[in-house]
Amino acid sequence: MPTELILPLDIPTREAARPLLKQLQGTVPWMKVGLQMFTAFGTDWVKEVADSGYKVFLDLKLHDIPNTVAKAVESLSPLPIHMLTLHTSGGPAMIKAAREAQQASNPDLLLLGVTVLTSMDAAQMQAVGWNDDAATQVRRLAQTGSAAGLQGFVCSPLEVADLKANLPAGTQLVTPGIRPAGADQGDQSRIMTPGDAARAGSTHIVVGRPITAAADPVAAARAIRAELDSA
Ligand code: C5P
């Protein structure tokens, strides 16, 4: 299966997002709706994105007691979403409860675990008691999440090879931090090209500004897909 392309809708208004939805139909299969748009425009917006012809990755990074997360997964089940994130650091009991709720209410939904946010440097990690280096902590959380039933994770493309080697075959690995060769890095520092990420084992890549800020977003998205298809 070629690596799939996901566009994050990091956009403040629906009016600004709609032209992109129209333009990229048939070129980008997935849209990521995160906290910015979900907290502002809610479930109606998720439905509108899905109705525009996209698979929706709802990136809410759930993290609470097991019962509350399970109820949230259940409450989201009428929505046309295909992927949903939760924080793996919520622990095995939270993950198992979420997974049971997902299997009962929305069997086709893929629950993805977030491991260590890339905004966490060594000082931030130590402040919350994570004393290992990031790679070790990411692997520990992913293995814990996998044992508790998660079938996919969000991670940096630089962690993909290690996770692929340490998780069951078929685990989905979704990676942001992607920049086509020659593209502006923006605020991303640990990056890979789409082709390298695909060859390392990313099953999905999340690419925002290289598409949204391009003079021709459709051409930019097509070029990335061509790179993924030939990886
Ligand atoms: O524009 P860009 O390609 O950098 O967008 C990447 C997307 O992935 C953004 O929505 C960003 O918040 C998200 N993300 C990330 N790095 C992570 C997790 C999420 O860049 N570790």
Written overview of the protein:
The chain is globular, with a radius of gyration of 17 Å. It is 45% helix and 16% strand. The protein is built from ten helices and eight strands. The protein has a single domain, classed as Aldolase class I (TIM Barrel, Alpha-Beta Barrel), CATH 3.20.20. It starts with a strand and ends with a helix. It has an eight-stranded parallel beta barrel, surrounded by six helices. With 231 residues, the chain is α/β, with parallel strands linked by helices. Helix 3 links the parallel strand 3 and strand 4. The chain binds cytidine-5'-monophosphate. Cytidine-5'-monophosphate binds next to loops.
Question: What's the gist of this structure?
Answer:
The protein has 10 helices and 8 strands. By secondary structure, it is an alpha/beta fold. The protein has helices at 14-23, 35-51, 66-76, 92-105, 122-127, 134-147, 160-166, 194-200, 209-212, 217-229; strands at residues 4-8, 30-34, 55-62, 83-87, 110-114, 152-154, 172-175, 204-206.
What would the average pLDDT be, to the nearest integer?
Answer: 96
* Strand content bin: 15-25%
CATH homologous superfamily (4th level) name: Aldolase class I
CATH topology: TIM Barrel
How do the SSEs run, as a string of H and E? Answer: EHEHEHEHEHHEHEHEHH
Strand order of the largest sheet: 1-2-3-4-5-6-7-8
Small molecules bound in the structure, each named once:
cytidine-5'-monophosphate
Low-confidence stretches are none
Number of strands: 8
Domain count, please report it. Answer: 1
Distance between the termini: 11 Å
As a percent range, the share of helical residues equals 40-55%
| Cα-based radius of gyration, to the nearest Å | 17 Å
